[in-house]
């Protein structure tokens, strides 16, 4: 087929897709998130609604995260959220941009959910996305960090963990002094990786000795990995 003929077809197809996805009550959230007890989680959330027939622009969005009938978090100022979640939750999303993300801190054994999102649009409609709940798997034991060492003239050791709390990422401590750098990156919509890198020039007495990396998670849990520095 001639490319000139194919091209308008492709454009129409793309427009049709965008249109249909924005014309329904849909929400994009993970079904299940794994969170370390005591730590925090940012629940990613994007929502959609059918286009209103009226051309009048929408201006007021009230978003609620619910557990059953308990309000866990909202963007409505001064709204009294359930006391179990008061001061632990924060509504992060920009509802005008269809973002309904929420932060929950100090996650406890009872925070498994299921949680769901509800939107209320003053001049339009309201909808509870209760068929797309989010559950949290609360783990009590943190995974030990992955520790690796590269030896050149210097020792470069990397200590890496994944977690759900980008706002308060884990801290690291090393059993040997040196130059320490930390950086985080996103692994998926809710999971992050934070890596601490230690660099130092080894002395003879450092060889065949353990090098330890301890991870201190939000909430106070910590776990150590150990390796031996070899020549
Ligand atoms: C939604 O908002 C959260 C919190 O501000 C932000 O981290 C995230 O990147 C936003 N998602 C999108 C798709 O814009
Ligand atoms: C490093 O870890 C090893 C094994 O867990 C432990 O025996 C040792 O005391 C630790 N050393 C330091 C300096 O923390």
TrEMBL record:
SMART domains per the UniProt record, alphabetical:
IG
Q: Where in the cell is it found?
A: Membrane
User: What range does the record give for the signal peptide?
Assistant: 1-20
Tell me, what's a Pfam family for it?
Ig_CD22
Which part of the chain is the Immunoglobulin domain? 30-139, 144-230
Source domain of life is: Eukaryota
Keyword field contains DNA damage: no
Please give the GO cellular component terms listed in this UniProt entry. Answer: membrane
> What are the UniProt keywords, alphabetically?
Disulfide bond, Membrane, Signal
User: What protein name is recorded for this chain?
Assistant: Immunoglobulin domain-containing protein
